[in-house]
Automatic annotation (TrEMBL):
<keyword id="KW-0732">Signal</keyword>
<keyword id="KW-0325">Glycoprotein</keyword>
<dbReference type="InterPro" id="IPR000917">
    <property type="entry name" value="Sulfatase_N"/>
</dbReference>
<feature type="signal peptide">
    <location>
        <begin position="1"/>
        <end position="29"/>
    </location>
</feature>
<dbReference type="InterPro" id="IPR024607">
    <property type="entry name" value="Sulfatase_CS"/>
</dbReference>
<dbReference type="InterPro" id="IPR047115">
    <property type="entry name" value="ARSB"/>
</dbReference>
<keyword id="KW-0378">Hydrolase</keyword>
<feature type="domain" description="Sulfatase N-terminal">
    <location>
        <begin position="53"/>
        <end position="363"/>
    </location>
</feature>
<dbReference type="GO" id="GO:0046872">
    <property type="term" value="F:metal ion binding"/>
</dbReference>
<keyword id="KW-0106">Calcium</keyword>
<comment type="similarity">
    <text>Belongs to the sulfatase family.</text>
</comment>
<dbReference type="Pfam" id="PF00884">
    <property type="entry name" value="Sulfatase"/>
</dbReference>
<dbReference type="GO" id="GO:0008484">
    <property type="term" value="F:sulfuric ester hydrolase activity"/>
</dbReference>
<keyword id="KW-0479">Metal-binding</keyword>
<dbReference type="InterPro" id="IPR017850">
    <property type="entry name" value="Alkaline_phosphatase_core_sf"/>
</dbReference>
<protein>
    <submittedName>
        <fullName>Arylsulfatase J-like</fullName>
    </submittedName>
</protein>
Amino acid sequence: MVLGAMCGRMGRSTFLFTLLTTFSGIVNSTYGSWKSSFHSNRVNNVEKPSSQPHIIFIMVDDQGFRDVGYHGSEIKTPTLDRLAAAGVKLENYYVQPLCSPSRSQLMTGRYQIHTGLQHSIIRPTQPNCLPLKNITLPQKLKNAGYSTHMVGKWHLGFYKRGCMPTQRGFDTFFGSLLGSGDYYSHYKCDSPGMCGYDLHEGEEAAWEQDHGIYSTIMYTQKAINILASHNPKRPIFLYLAYQAVHSPLQVPARYLKRYKSIPNLHRRKYAAMVSCLDEAVRNLTLALKQYGYYDNMVMVYSSDNGGQPMAGGSNWPLRGSKGTYWEGGIRAVGFVHSPLLVKKGTRSRALIHITDWYPTLVMLGEGTLDENQNLDGYDVWEAISEGRPSPRLDILHNIDPVYTKAKNGSWKAGYGIWNTAIQAALRVGDWKLLTGVPGYGDWIPPQTFSKLLLANRWHNERVNWDRGKSIWLFNITADPYERVDLSRRYPRVVKKMLFRLLRYNKTAVPCRYPPKDYRSNPQYNGGVWGPWYTNDDEDEDDNLLSYDLEQMKSWKKAKRRGKFNRKT
């Protein structure tokens, strides 16, 4: 009736026009409100870029101190030179002399004496691994919201599932568990009859992903695939641990052709492997830019130890080589490249050790550090980025109670403070002290222009006057090549450093270096190197892993007499 009355007074056409106009206004008002609300929700739901930087850690294997272009090498490394020149070159940077020790300290931020891994490396047949009670770097970053990925060489033990990379904080793992192997077939023989396949995806053998590709190229492509599939607005930790340039000396022919002028075959192959590595880092860097990571990224490049001259490497003019506590074994190639650096294009002389990456990267990633972790590393980001003094004043390079004792070492030589027969090395400020047997100590020029093998002692500076010694003192700042032993000239400095060694040694945990377990043989595991402990073995784990010095001596004697078995 109301509509009829209205229609009668206004006329049919006028009424319909008014009705449609009113309805249209209501619809537009409702749509506008909904559109505004939708747009607001959409903006709020769009994922904003994280303030946490992407962390790319590139670990290379056995690259000598000299074996990079910016250290004067004949090996061409244009990518590494360019990245280092635009970043910060670490010229007072130290690692450990062997693979497992460096990697364990990177992952835990703790010295070897505090993890029980102070002797040698983790062998593939040993029931041993990075102690599970240690919270690892990827675990800390994962707790801070990072996606964590590892590609490459693990070498921190795998005798049980809990030791595997994906159980130690990495979301994904693609690579090898052992310390070395064939670059194409990915097979490794630890000893006659102990051979197996060593390429893994997660916790399983990567048979389907293996196409016989040279590992440096294969690992780089895997890393790029991870970057391509990840959202760059979420923080990522990518640990790319190349097998290169560790022996065996294998490399695609196209890289070898670049170094025809080098007559020494080992050096020629080694140089070609470094060039392939340099190209791999270039491809990775291009991917970081292509997929949107570069502007909010911190890249760390580090060798795990010094070069091995017998396998083509060079640490010249430093003394010694891989496996020794001379500078050539522990002073590493390293740099940081990042748009986030305050002072770019600089050369840092700040004292930095591989344990420092743990607190530095955790704090950069807005993570947390626990007081009860008892870290040996320091946050050195301000020292690197801004050129401030390093908070680190000393480095315990190691105390190894198991290594071969120096025949002339004694408590008397250590002033009654320290037995100098024990292998140990300590840096405090400008001073460096060594005791025991530091390792092979010659100065070895690059093998570029010689066809002779190192065994023939060509143009080495041999050291004869060291044979009766068990203690050395050097001013490393003034004498980085360790040519002038000052131990007799500064006995007071020696005593102070021996007391510091003693204090460190009081904090050491028992050494973990168990004998071979024959159940590790890949023939019992489908031809694959992998975990061999079962749940039934977990109860005996602690007893099997903890060996004091006397047990170690007994085991070695039994082994020499041929009376060794697994239950020894």
